[in-house]
Write a structure and sequence with these properties.
The model has no long low-confidence stretch (mean pLDDT 97). The protein is of the alpha/beta class and 368 residues long. It has 2 domains: 254 residues, Alpha/Beta hydrolase fold, catalytic domain (Rossmann fold, 3-Layer(aba) Sandwich), CATH 3.40.50.1820; 97 residues, Orthogonal Bundle (Rna Polymerase Sigma Factor, Chain: A). Strands 1-2-6-3-7-8-9-10 form an 8-stranded mixed β-sheet, with helices on both faces. A two-stranded parallel sheet has the order 4-5. The protein is built from 10 helices and 10 strands. Helix 3 packs antiparallel against helix 4. The longest helix has 15 residues. One of its GO terms (cellular component) is cytoplasm. This is Homoserine O-acetyltransferase. Homodimer. GO terms for molecular function: homoserine O-acetyltransferase activity. InterPro entries: AB_hydrolase_1, AB_hydrolase_fold, HAT_MetX-like.
Length: 368
């Protein structure tokens, strides 16, 4: 059992892309492996929407589950801690230690709530850069992430092209398309329509738990696929309720599955963070304030691997393929690989054998 201790770096007066200013920013992060003397073995792992900096190992012997990407991170694993110094940082706006809407406002000590400014993925990456600079790191061997983490990885390569040597973007687009924005908006409306949301000022109460649960139920549908739902549930019914089969208490198994995941998120995540992070995803467009969309890919210097998932309905494979197509058009080194899976978008958290093989092949080429 590998025990990991979360770390925190704080800095002040952080100006956001919107022009707003955060007087104080905390960033929580975890590291795995040993930083080389030359500081040239750094891998940054970027987490997804409701993820955290806890990517691998355990916080205590009592912890039941390891970090969210533990099958890939560790001694002798794909992201080998015998070779690499791996850093996973909690994103700005989250609720796992980094500054977000549940954090105390410096003026009065009460939670920011909706006083927290709107943030972008560029803001998240620029905040993480402050930690990297604090650690004295000037070169990053690899940045890797899936979903929202893949969006961060793309921004790392564009914001710091002379620092990032290699990039792996998994199941993520270079800009958010209308269907994904629509999914996010329905989730936000579920939260904001809950009477317990109280315009975001629900602290220290339980908050809009029903709205957040519904938002997660919707999200869970987008993370899976028609094939995975059919294979796992079919039309199987849950146990018969006391008032019989023909009642609204009767559930199909897929319904109980969605309710379970909705309630599970409520236990560990802040509703306002969900609002801010999905909004940040909506703003994601690597060409915004930079120029023409197709031409921006010429600015990515990192050797790039883009991985799609054949059954992904949230970010379909054409969105990953267009990244590679546009990079190749400008003679940038980019490769596309695809995971075959019934599991949809969540395959990057499930199909470790396939994903590991693809990543291993890339690392063997760029960091032998």
């Amino acid at each position: 059992m590998v025990l990991v201790i979360p770390q925190k770096y704080s800095f002040s007066n952080f100006r956001l892309e919107s022009g707003a200013n955060l007087p104080l920013v905390d960033i929580v992060y975890e590291t795995y492996g040993t930083l080389s003397r030359a500081k040239d073995n750094v891998v940054i792992v970027c987490h997804a929407l409701t993820g955290s900096a806890h990517a691998a190992g355990y916080h205590s012997p009592q912890e039941k589950m390891p970090g969210w990407w533990d099958p890939l991170i560790g001694p002798g694993k794909v992201l080998d801690t015998n070779r690499f110094f791996i850093i996973c940082l909690n994103i700005l706006g989250s609720c796992y230690g980094s500054t977000g809407p549940a954090s105390p406002h410096p003026d009065d000590g009460t939670p920011y709530a909706m006083r927290f400014p709107v943030i972008t993925i560029r803001d998240m990456v620029r905040a993480h850069f402050q930690v990297i600079k604090h650690l004295g790191i000037e070169k990053i061997r690899l940045v890797i992430g899936g979903s929202l983490g893949g969006m961060q990885a793309l921004e790392w390569a564009l914001l710091y092209p002379d620092m990032v040597e290699n990039l792996i973007c998994i199941a993520a687009p270079a800009r958010l398309y209308p269907q994904a924005i629509a999914f996010n908006e329905v989730g936000r409306q579920a939260i904001m329509s809950d009477p317990e949301w109280r315009q975001g000022n629900y602290y220290p109460g339980k908050g809009p738990v029903n709205g957040l649960a519904i938002a997660r139920m919707l999200g869970t549908i987008t993370y899976r696929s028609d094939l995975s739902m059919n294979l796992r549930f079919g039309r199987k019914s849950a146990p018969l309720p006391p008032n019989g089969y023909y009642s609204f208490d009767q559930k199909f198994e897929v319904e109980t599955y969605l309710h379970y995941h909705g309630q599970a998120l409520v236990q560990r995540f802040d509703a306002n963070s969900y609002l801010y992070l999905t909004k940040a995803m909506d703003y994601h467009d690597i060409s915004f304030n930079r120029g023409k969309y197709e031409e921006i890919f010429a600015d990515i210097k990192a050797k790039t691997l883009v991985i799609g998932i054949d059954t992904d309905i949230l970010f379909p494979t054409y969105q990953q393929q267009e990244i590679v197509k546009n990079m190749v058009k400008y003679y940038r080194p980019a490769y596309y690989r695809e995971i075959t899976s019934p599991h949809g978008h969540d395959a990057f958290l499930i199909e470790y054998k396939q994903l590991g093989k693809i990543i291993n092949e890339f690392i063997a080429e760029v960091a032998p």
